[in-house]
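re: ur question from earlier - yeah i can do the single chain one, its not a big deal. heres the input i used so u can compare w yours
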Amino acid sequence: MIIFSTQNFVLLIAALINLFMSFFVFKRGIKNKINLYFGLLTFFNFTWSLGLLISRSIADISLVGLFARSTYISALAIVIFLFYFVHHFPYQTAKLKNVAHIFILLPAIVLSFYIYTPYFITETVRAYSDFEYISHYNKVGFFLYAIYFVVIAILALKKLFKKYNVAEGLLKQQIKMLLVAIIIGLLFGSYFDLFIQYFDDYRFNWLGPIFTVLMNFIVFFFVISPKEKISN
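and the output i got, formated as tokens:
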């Protein structure tokens, strides 16, 4: 049984919006790296929102734990594809070396396996109401997860900031808008779905996807804009 509270309805809308953006961008051609990585970014925003929706909407506590874990996999994918998207948008400054790919992807693979062990989420219990929960974590493991997420997010922002510094005219203003949108999305998404959950507060985890949807809307506008709008 799915419970459609106001919060869950918001999560459903966020999921559908991200899914629409993902399909639309993929349809434009995944051979284009900008389309590919933004499409993957929005797709995993969809799976993140959907995972939160299901985990907040079902009574079977074992399934709640499964879908709660899936949201952390989606979050890893979101920040990774954000990094690769920023690397290519609106242009690629230099090719990433193999060691950079290893630095980004290897810890994510290890964390993905770790998330599905009993040593990441040690227990999931009902709280607040019959359809809201609390997951208890291994604090060290959760801290390592958070550190990886923040480091990749900072690297992505650093790349975009460098492009902002060398850009001119309209492109500079557009990159500035992207920077502000991405910072807001990352800050609020991380606060509601990472920081306060470290302290076992899950009441507001439905708010995170709202801010990332707003971020993705702005990015989506520039991705589908004519080329002359995103180049010098």
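Residues 73 and 156 are 18 Å apart (CA to CA). not sure if urs matches, ping me
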